[in-house]
Design goal:
Function: Binds mRNA; thus facilitating recognition of the initiation point. It is needed to translate mRNA with a short Shine-Dalgarno (SD) purine-rich sequence.
Helix content: 10-25%
Radius of gyration: 58 Å
GO biological process, one term: translation
CATH architecture of the largest domain: Beta Barrel
Organism: Jannaschia faecimaris
Largest sheet: 5 strands, antiparallel
Family: Belongs to the bacterial ribosomal protein bS1 family.
Distance between the termini: 210 Å
Shape: rod-shaped
Number of helices: 9
Mean pLDDT: 82
GO molecular function: mRNA binding; structural constituent of ribosome
CATH topology of the largest domain: OB fold (Dihydrolipoamide Acetyltransferase, E2P)
Strand content: 35-45%
Length: 560
Amino acid sequence: MATNASMEEFEALLNESLEIDTPQEGSVVKGKVLAIEAGQAIIDVGYKMEGRVDLKEFANPGEPAEIEVGDEVEVFLRNVENARGEAVISHEMARREAAWDRLEEAYGKEERVEGAIFGRVKGGFTVDLGGAVAFLPGSQVDVRPVRDAGPLMGLKQPFQILKMDRRRGNIVVSRRAILEESRAEQRAEVIGNLAEGQTVDGVVKNITEYGAFVDLGGVDGLLHVTDMAWRRVNDPREILSIGETVKVQVIKINKETHRISLGMKQLQDDPWDAVIAKYPLDSNHTGRVTNITDYGAFVELEPGVEGLVHVSEMSWTKKNVHPGKIVSTSQEVEVMVLEIDTAKRRVSLGLKQTMRNPWEVFAETHPEGTQVEGEVKNITEFGLFIGLPGDIDGMVHLSDLTWEGRGEDVIGDYRKGDIVKAVVSEVDTDKERISLSIKAAGGDPYAEAIGGVKRGSIITVEVTKIEEGGIEVEYEGMKSFIRRSDLARDRADQRPERFGTGDKIDVRVTNVDSKNRRLGLSIKAREIAEEQEAVEQFGSSDSGASLGDILGAALKGDDD
């Protein structure tokens, strides 16, 4: 019984010893390098167990293996024995397990970890973190896009762990976060040494269409295009180049966003300080067209002083054309100063004011009654527009087209491009209007016809038409109408039919209407006037002589 008890105790102690000393599968154990052959290291992990590990597992990415016989290393025991009786071990898995423990601790404390970029994959790079492989997205490599990552490959540097999942074996890291943190510290230090209004030297780092970024020694400031010079700068590259050292003034510092605004023109004299004295109102100056818009053109009087010529002040005659058809960029032009607003830094200029008003010139050289010749520029429902000297137009109203008939009936006889003669009837320089008359260019037939005719005159007319209400007659080409009641003194003779077309009759002028161009004529008035004249010469009807006697005596006297 005693012997049996001793054997059982011995077996229990032996088993306990084996359980304590024999490595467990799936654990990390220490081993000793016994030999290196055929690209492998033979490692003794104790208890007469040996295993083989490829030398590449002992090498960092891109570097040779650093291992020698006798070195003590850690390996991961995957299996105690394989088909060849050897232990299945891995140094890489041991490093990975140790690395994960270390990385999880660093991740929890938000500490940086060291690693090296060793490969490129879709969307980014692979990073060795001392045994564990992490993914570095392309957007997290640097603060700015990296075109060539070659210089970064294999270089040991710090990274920040953004996310990790041990169960899935995923780790995402960032190099950009480290750079931004370092840059923020550097920016804070540099900004702390800057003050608004301070003049500093900087290096042009980048140029854009709206300005340039200037490196002030670890922190960038924006030099806006409007702060580069007092004059208009269309392209910053006109005055700056990348790598150039420039002297700038700190205009504004935003302590929260660390944004710095810089200026170059602030270090120069402001040309606006002398604008009023140098450019008095109504004075003429020569400038250069710098920019053309739909509403006018900007003219530079000197660097930093620019004025606007509004489209309405560009030409006396071209009212509805684009400014680009009057002036061109870089053209030298003479302008007049119309208004200065120093508060808004604006100068209003005039281009047409440097030239005489063409309507005033025309009025001086073409007084009313002057005959002109010009081309029909436009035809409207109310008249013609005729081109005149000085690139201006005059209008011929419908009523001034012809003496006879209606203007509406004859305007169709004119075409654009026709050369016509007209007489200046009125010039209104304030309203910029010129009235012309085509009918007056050939003289006034009415005025010529009635040259010596006045009220009470006796003239001879020709009957041209017989109507029920009277007769139409003609005198020197001018037509008139004699009403039935004016055809004779006696009512019985007031019959139109007693006249014939072509008859010549004497009539008395009762009215001269120059405005309506008409003569008032009457046979009745002539007969009454003749009777009165005969009575005055040969006697009165009150003495007993009849009208026939009186007229007979008058006729006899004429015969004698």
